[in-house]
Amino acid sequence: MSRNFPLNALRVFEAAARHASFTRAGDELGMTQTAVSYQIKLLEETLGETLFLRQPRQVMLSEAGERLAPKVAEGLTKLAEAVADLRGAAEQKLHIHSTPTFATQWLSRTLGDFQLKHPTIAVRLSTSQELIDFTREEADVSIRWGKGDWPGLTCHRVMRMDFAPMLSPALVETIGGIRKPADLLKLPIISPLDIWWRTWFSAAGIDDPGLERFPPNELGVQTIDAQVAMAGQGVAILNPGHFRAEVAAGQLYQPFELTCNDGRDYWLAYPENRRNILKIRAFRDWILATMPAAV
Description:
This protein is α/β, with parallel strands linked by helices. The protein has 10 helices and 9 strands. The chain has helices at 7-19, 22-29, 33-47, 63-92, 100-117, 169-173, 195-203, 222-230, 244-248, 278-290, and strands spanning 52-55, 58-61, 93-98, 122-127, 141-146, 153-159, 164-166, 236-238, 265-271. The strands form 3 sheets. It has a 5-stranded mixed beta sheet with strand order 4-3-5-9-6. Strands 1-2 form a two-stranded antiparallel sheet. The two termini are 58 Å apart. Belongs to the LysR transcriptional regulatory family.
């Protein structure tokens, strides 16, 4: 069918045929009787057939109109069903994009509660360190690390990104305990190029910790740094809020209460024009209600 075919006129024709009235068709479609008449005339000119017999105070389908009407009604019904099916499927699946650490340390442990509260919403979770572009990606919402100032997005802070040194209790024993921040420098430092280290040591009163003497490893994500630390292979700089379970299990130890924050936290973000989508509202309300008890 030519792209110039007046498809909207078919919708107007179906309503006019069903009501046997241009006026009532206009009332249903939010159009004037004149606009309906124009669309019908446009369709008739395109098809080269008279579709309605105009009579005083009423219109009747012509023979050509009688043949066309049921086919158009059937086609519009199938189209409406296809759109409803697609919309329904989209409404029932929530695509969450998250940083790997947040997904592993928090979402994976709590999504079951979201599913219990919203059993009709399926969840797809994808992870990466990159900031996704909602105009190019299929994600509905994103958990991002930053300042929450992304243009065009509605953002809600969901977790403070504080940081402090953490290590295995067994590693602590190898040097007879840790009593002051400088004691940490007696042990291997994991990811010493991470800018959090200098920030924390400076706050602890050590302006030049000499981190350059450690192998300049960059492991990429907190979950890997934490795994290395739990294996007793060094001290990691981590967000304690992510690793409460590991601390409780005796796998990680935070030797000092001092934590720092560089102004970047975890945020729930989604396009402003999608803020009223039901599945997005459901996830937003759930995570904002759940996070205060968990962080």
